[in-house]
Design brief:
Layout: H1 7-10, H2 31-39, H3 45-63, E1 66-69, H4 73-86, E2 97-101, H5 129-136, E3 140-145, H6 149-152, E4 162-163, E5 167-168, H7 184-191, E6 197-202, H8 208-213, E7 217-220, E8 240-245, H9 248-258, E9 291-295, H10 303-318, E10 322-326, H11 336-357, H12 369-378, H13 380-383, H14 390-395, H15 404-428, E11 433-437, H16 460-465, E12 469-477, E13 480-487, H17 493-507
Parallel strand pairs: 2-3, 2-6, 9-10, 9-11
Antiparallel strand pairs: 1-3, 4-5, 6-8, 7-8, 7-12, 11-13, 12-13
Helix pairs in contact: 3-4, 10-17, 11-15
Length: 518
């Protein structure tokens, strides 16, 4: 699946916080609640920033979810407070603090590291397009979240949630357990109310897996709905940023702010046509009359998770859905994984080189994947004490984007997963979406045996196809969250979110973690 940090890295802005942490309780506050309180004058954006930073200082030494705070966040919040008084209408995320994964650039004086010491000085002074859109919607970038280093693409034997820059991210429901990856810190931070919501990125499972095991709503949109410009890449075929939040509505609000066409990212050409309000179709009645396919072949991996899944299916029926059993995947999907591996390896080498070429060589001497491999070898004590870089080494042997084997694999993988996979299941069963357990509960962090996933059969097809995939909390196994995956066809993002909202309102399955200060 592609998916002990120095304390000073996480807390550089705390000295700026003049507001007592008890002045406003940010725990579990939705975006709508925060906006209402801001509008009513019950709190200011500056007070929100101070409250979130104080919460991070109290709790994050246990979770290692935040790599760095934005030293300009308080200044930007004060500017938002002043602007709010001067204009008659407010922006969608006016004054709302948001955390972003540390492979997403911001123009703030904070490095974008992808978790690697090779990018420790990568302060670019530029906003990723999605960050510029968040700011235009009024959001305050509070800081950067930890992640599985290089978005979990360095090794096939890695430990999710670990990076050399950020250390080991931990699950707020049980700090002994994994956050999954690669958007590990975004998952833990959003679950722990370190911000109103967070942004993650996914290539295959890196939003949906950490969202599911951290009790969150996570949405991997259609590839091309959100720009990837100035986001450290793995694969232009499969990469996409997406929201991670405590409710479907908050995820939809965040998505609407981020989405849109970007001339620098050709995949986004259709994005503006979908609009920017993904809350408009959210309705508790969205499932009434809907036919939903149940991917039985993606379940059955864990009896306790299956029991929660059955209760989720009952909630779907109670909300008005007709469920159609799908016992086996289409035959064309059986060879998707092999092709995906070649696609990711080839695009990693090419796309990383393109990204590195855009950075300042005085700050980032590495210009190629081979340079990164050499850096890791030279800094093996810090970078490779827990696992190696076998995927990097295999990717460096690929032959480029013009290689006929890659060109064929890319076309076949997308066709097998999309038109002959998801679309075939939708058409043959006359359904408009598919559901399955996202995966089992979080596993214990183990430096010897590494990751020990249970299940996780739902996300591969939408990842390779580039189709939307939403996970929504559906309950718990022994106090650990598990999620329901809802999958649709390309550009059907609004409907997938609407189904997720209706399920959320019918089930009310999410429970907040019980957190203790460090």
């Amino acid at each position: 699946m592609r998916f002990v940090r120095p304390l000073a890295l996480a807390l550089p802005a705390l000295a700026l916080c003049a507001t007592p942490a008890h002045a406003y309780d940010v725990a579990e506050k939705s975006v709508d609640t925060l906006r209402a309180d801001l509008d009513a004058g019950r709190v200011t954006s500056a007070e929100l920033v101070a409250a979130y930073e104080a919460r991070i200082a109290r709790i994050d030494p246990t979770l290692h979810a935040v790599i760095a705070l934005n030293p300009r966040a308080l200044e930007q919040a004060r500017a938002a407070d002043a602007a709010r008084k001067a204009r008659p209408t407010h922006l969608p995320l006016d004054g709302i603090p948001i955390l972003i994964k540390d492979n997403i650039e911001s123009a703030d004086p904070v490095a974008t590291t992808a978790g690697s010491l090779a990018l420790a000085n990568n302060v670019t002074g530029r906003d990723a397009t999605l960050v510029a859109r968040l700011r235009a919607a009024g959001a305050i970038i509070l800081g950067k979240t930890n992640l599985s280093e290089w978005a979990n693409i360095r090794s096939n034997h890695s430990i999710s949630g670990w990076s050399a820059t950020g250390g080991q991210a931990r699950n707020p429901y049980d700090p002994r357990r994994s956050t999954c990856g690669s958007s590990a810190g975004s998952g833990a931070a959003a679950a722990a109310s370190f911000a109103a919501a967070a942004v993650g990125t996914e290539t295959d499972g890196s939003i949906t897996c950490p969202s599911a095991v951290n009790g969150l709503v996570g949405f991997k949109p259609t590839v091309g709905l959100v720009s990837r410009t100035h986001v450290v890449p793995i694969s232009h075929s499969q990469d996409t940023p997406g929201p991670m939040a405590r409710s479907v509505r908050d995820a939809a609000l965040l998505l609407g702010a981020m989405a849109g066409s970007d001339p620098a990212d050709p995949a986004t050409a259709r994005a503006d046509a979908l609009g920017h309000d993904f809350t408009a179709t959210l309705s508790a009645d969205a499932l009434k009359g809907a036919r939903i396919g149940v991917m039985r072949f993606a379940a059955g991996f864990h009896p306790e998770t299956d029991a929660v899944f059955e209760r989720a299916l009952a909630a779907l029926r109670a909300a008005g859905a007709t469920l159609v059993e799908i016992k086996a995947p289409p035959p064309a999907t059986k060879d998707v994984g092999e092709r995906e591996q070649l696609v990711l390896s080839t695009e990693l080498k090419a796309d990383l080189a393109t990204y590195l070429a855009s950075t300042d060589p005085a700050k980032v001497p590495s210009r190629t994947l081979a340079d990164l491999i050499a850096f890791n070898q030279a800094h093996a004590a810090q970078e490779m004490a827990l696992f190696g870089q076998d995927f990097f080494e295999d990717a460096d042997k690929t032959k480029g984007l013009a290689d006929p084997a890659y060109v064929t694999a890319a076309a076949e993988a997308r066709r097998m997963a999309g038109p002959e996979g998801i679309d075939r299941m939708l058409a043959d069963n006359k359904v408009t979406a598919l559901v399955a357990p996202t995966l089992g509960p979080a596993w214990l962090i183990d430096q010897v045996l590494k990751d020990n996933f249970v299940g996780g059969g739902a996300g591969g097809l939408p990842a390779v196809a580039g189709y939307p995939h939403l996970t929504v909390p559906m309950g718990e196994v022994s106090g650990l969250p598990v999620g329901l995956s809802i999958i649709g066809t390309a550009w059907d993002d609004a409907r997938v979110l609407a189904y997720g909202y209706a399920f959320e309102q019918a089930s009310h399955a999410r429970r907040a973690p019980v957190l203790a200060p460090h």
